[in-house]
Amino acid sequence: MKVEIVNQQKLYPIDRKKIRRIINTILKDEKKDAELSVVFLDNKRIKEINKIFLHHDDVTDVLSFAYSEPFLKDAGVQQRRRETTLRLPLSEEVEKRNMMCSGRDEERKFLSAETVTGEIIVSVEMAVQIAKKQGYSIEGEIILYVIHGLLHLIGYDDKRKREAKKMHQREKELLLYFGYTTIPVPN
To answer: Which residue has the higher pLDDT, 73 or 32?
Structure first.
């Protein structure tokens, strides 16, 4: 299991050990291995990434990209990725290994089917704004975003009502387990 944490903001201190412990606990509970990057940014940077990769010209709280997503292999997306100044070191390393291992010999595959690979990108600025406005823990709001992004990479979905309910229930369970009892999650 490899979890790389990259902090590119100065608005709120990130407890890397706690983030890594939470991610590892969730992955163990979900019976998954992982190679992940978790990147903490401000609103300006997450808006830029949201526009480049998803064509949404908005600030968002969290983005997650599984390396297996077909659109990430598109030549135009690859070029836009190279043009961004975002440091996503693990993504390039995982891509190189997968390219080296793919091909004739399926037994040479580097990652198993149970391995979650991807990036979780968190807007700390958004978490600070929302937590202050609502009067609850900034750290808890950041943890909610990390959990939300990780659950997406694991396979949870919130596009349809039924799946969203299941995902939000899991988020609530995990927040309570980690001691964040006042962070609201949508129903």
So the answer is: 32
